[in-house]
Amino acid sequence: MPQLDALRGIAALVVVVSHSANAGFLPAFLGAGFGQMGVGLFYVLSAFLLTTIYIHKEPNGPVVRDYLVRRVCRVLPLFYAALFASLILEATTGVVIFGAFDSPEVTLKNVLLIHGTSVLWSIPAEIHFYLLFIVFWVLMRKDVKLAFLALVFLQTLLLAAAVTLDFSVYSLPYWMHFFTFGCFLAVVFDKKTSSLGTLSAPLPRVFFFLLIAATPILLPAVRSNILGFGMPIFLDPIALIWVGGLSTAFIFLTIPKHYLDNSFFRVLGELSFGVYLIHMAVISLASASFSGNVASKNFGFLVIIVLSYSLAAIANRYFERPVQDWLLKSMSVREKRSA
Questions:
Q1: How many other CB atoms sit within 10 Å of the CB of residue 321?
Q2: Which of 60, 75, 85, 264 has the highest count of CB atoms within 10 angstroms of its CB?
């Protein structure tokens, strides 16, 4: 499904645009929560793809082990590389990147994936869902309804604990419904109870184009200025509709595939994780380098885009993929030896 690679790339670009706006390199209305809508798209896609891949696989020991190894190899090498690189940059330039080393407690939470600072917050939340997904996976093989009830129950339980312990809202309990929705889309897609992609009725296509066209007025900052108040993105009904509608359209409609099935968007999707982890360092350094006039800020945003994607491409080719391949091969060899 190449259109999902495109959507992942678009989600990363949304985050970069939002954080650039927050830093003053773009108009302010493009920031203030728009990036979190991009994270919501990441979460829906992540859960959809996991469920699609494992829905028909028996969750026995070797398969679950393979699942965990692949998740670790996919996420953690680049995460820890970005964390280490930020330490070096902060020590040499004095520019704070993630704020991950503000105190021993904060550093420990980042390193142990308990809670991440700045954009790193989304990584522990995703890792925590990877573990809960095993419960959903086991139950799904027995009873799909029971599996979804378990997800809802777990989120309710975790949310109650998070509120009681005053845990950060940038954690899994507050965002787990995005993952649950992604799992739901995967089950519907697998059962083929929906065939939106082949419907002759124009309504789904009209909804898709309206959603895209309405995005500028659906931005959190725009709505906040109009209404005089805002809501956290994980509770914001408009943001939820935007994330849910866009991800559903990209999965079930043929239109996104028709327009986005090309090498440009495939590369955009492949670099999305690297861009997500790298762009804050680029923005932080750019903020320290460019003055406040409009021309300089506009040029600064161009620099942010070029450097973020260039560095992500270099990291992908010379670090991310080689390390993933080496770890997967190493784990496979160890498994054969133990067998």
A1: 13
A2: 75
pLDDT, one tens digit per residue, over 95-108 is: 999 999 999 999 99
Buried b (16+ CB within 10 A) or exposed e, 33-54: bbbbbbbbbbbbbbbbebbbeb
What DSSP string runs through 289-313?
Answer: HS-SSHHHHHHHHHHHHHHHHHHHH
Token pair for residue 42?
């990441």
pLDDT band at 333 (very low <50, low <70, confident <90, very high): low
Q: Give pTM, 2 decimals.
A: 0.92
State how far the Cα of 302 lies from the Cα of 72, in Å rounded to an integer: 33
DSSP 41-78: HHHHHHHHHHHHHHTTS---HHHHHHHHHHHHHHHHHH
User: Of 220, 303, 315, which Cα lies nearest the Cα of 16?
Assistant: 303
Q: Which amino acid is at 295?
A: A
| Per-residue model confidence as pLDDT tens digits over 78-95 | 999 999 999 999 999 889
For residue 201, the model assigns a pLDDT of: 57
What's the rounded Cα separation, in Å, for the pair 305 and 291? 18
Residue 150's closest CA among 166, 128, 169, 135? 135
Within the chain, residue ranges assigned H as helices are: 2-22, 34-54, 61-93, 104-111, 122-140, 144-164, 172-191, 203-218, 220-227, 237-252, 254-260, 263-270, 272-289, 294-315, 321-338
Please provide the distance, in angstroms rounded to a whole number, between the alpha carbons at the two ends of the chain. Answer: 35
What tens digit of pLDDT does each residue of 17-73 get? 999 999 999 999 998 899 999 999 999 999 999 999 999 999 999 899 999 999 999
* Residue written as token pair 């028996």: 58
